[in-house]
Every structure is written in structure tokens, then in C-alpha cells.
Amino acid sequence: MDLSKYVANLILFFRRLRIRAFRAMGGGGGGAEEELTAQETALYDRQIRVWGVDAQKRLSKAHVLVCGVNGTTIEFCKNIVLAGVGSLSLMDDHVVTEDDLNSNFLIPHDESIYGGRSRADVCCQSLKDFNPMVRVDVAKGDPSLIDGEFIDKFDIIVVSCASLKTKLFINDNCRKRNKHIAFYSIECKDSCGEIFVDLQNHSYVQKKPGGDPKQQELAYPSLQEAIDVPWKSLPKKTTKLHFAMRVLERYELSEGREPGETSLSDLPAVLALRKDMCDRMSLNESQIPTALLERLVAAGKKEHPPVCAILGGILGQEVIKSISCKGDPVKNFFYFDAADGKGVMEDIPPTPAD
Questions:
Q1: Cβ within 8 Å of residue 334, ≥6 positions away
Q2: What pathway or pathways are given for this protein in its record (predicted)?
């Protein structure tokens, strides 16, 4: 059995035992109330001990939208549903294919169940079963066409398997609203992954061992501002994966491709684009190894389940930090490569030293 599926099923088993226990005491509902109910306190007691009652109350009132349901985002969804988020909406009208079965552990290997249904629809009920106290629903539509009125319903928006154009559109709309809406994008390319974070202006409490809690302020750039930063201005130690992902997304955009619609036959054209971008950005091509681009191009839409679990876990942790306003958040990129097993945070553009 796949390890990630085994762990998920084990968590679900014990969660259901606890749900049955507090339901027997007359529990259920109450997630949107000002105070946590006795049933919520009983269900979430372990995590309340970690991040406190106030953080759990904030979490129970948060509304999350996920645009793009794949192996990576479903790991994230599992984590925040188990944690007790207020509501989760899934937007993905793509019909399930056999390729989805390889990484999305919530889609059963039974065509009579998933046949002709959307990814969001198939995964919705399973997520409800993980934690019936969380409202999970399907939001039909095209992420590239969502309007401000719809966006206002949410506190957190996560985008995946979407074009750069769509990500920029949603991120820009989040920033134009009168309320604070945190934006995340996340992608898994087989054994590599990237998370982008835009919390706009974020205040949080930083607490270090032996020290007093301190209020901190962070100002985040938009996605457009972050990817427009001249490469020559970035530190030499900047991960090569950052540059490689920019080349790949530019290639997909220029060719009118959907995310992941690449194969090894595209490699010569991608290498030519690398040369052009490096020349314009005054960056040595060795900073974007051919072998790395070859891996990303060959990956197509494939996701490596263990990497999905890692990225989904990191994103879940970051969203909880954002909602609770506790702990140092990622600013503003996170990269993971299973080839070396390292996770790297990149602050782009770099925050000036105090």
C-alpha cells in the first residue's frame, strides 16, 4: 500500500472514532459560533494545546477556496479539514482521468464511481467524511473568470494547475478587495515543487524560546512584482529551481499551453528560451541546469505522491500560521526537490537588512 494513503486512512480512522464519541454526547455543528463548543474543544483538544483556543477559533471561522484539485492540493485540503477550518470550497470542473489516480488518494480506483465526474465533485464527499464539522462544497466555474464579489466570500485562496495568467489575475483581484485575502499558489512537477505566498501586509506574533512574544509586520510583494525582479539582483545562492520554474511557465504561456502540457520534445525550445531569458537577465545559463529543465519538462502533469504530501503539509502549516497570526510565515517562495531532499525558502525581492 502507498505510504501516504496508509497514513491518511489511519488518521481518518482515529478521527472518525473521536467524532462518533462526541456525537454520542450530542455534538455536531457550531463551527461558526463566537466561542468553541464543548464538542469542538473535545475534537480539537490536541491541536488547541499546540496553538491555543484563539487560533482554533480563528481557524473555525476561516473560509478557504482551492482552485485546482490535484494530488498536492488534496493533501493540503485533508490537513486543514482535519484541523477544523470553517469551510472549504473546491473549484475544478475537469473530469477525472486515469492520470489523476496516480497522485490523488481521494479518488477511488473505480470508474463506476469517478467516471464522468469532476475532480472537485469526487473529492468533496471524501473530505466531508474526514471531518463532518467542516463545511465542504463544490464551486463550479472557471478560475480565470471569477469576479470580486465571489472572491470576497473567502479569506484564503489557493491556486494550482493554473496558467501564469490565471494566477496573476486572481492574485491581483485579491489585492484589490476591501478585505484581507491571503493568496497562495502551489505546483508539483513530479519530484519538484514550488509554493508562492502573498499575505499582503501581515501582522503576527513571533515567540522564541526564552523570549517575550513580539509583534512583527511583513509586507509582501504581489506575484507579478516577485517574478519581475531582475535575476541579476538576486543573491548568488538563490535556488536554481526558482529560475527553472520561471523559464517553464514563460514557455507554457508563450506557447498557449495548459500547465504541464510539455514533453521531452519541447526541451530544445525550452533551452532556447533559457538562453534568451538569461541573456536579458544577465544570468549565467549554468544557474539553470539543463538536467533540471529536462526533469521539469518531462514531468508534464505528473506528481510524485510523497512530494505532494510534503508540499501539502507545508502549505497547510503556512495557512494555519496566516489565519492564527502566530509563527514566522514563509516569505515568499518555498521550493522542494526530492533529488536532494531539501526545502528552501526564498525572499524575492530580498527584504532590506535592518
A1: 194, 195, 197, 314, 318, 343, 344, 345, 346
A2: Protein modification; protein sumoylation
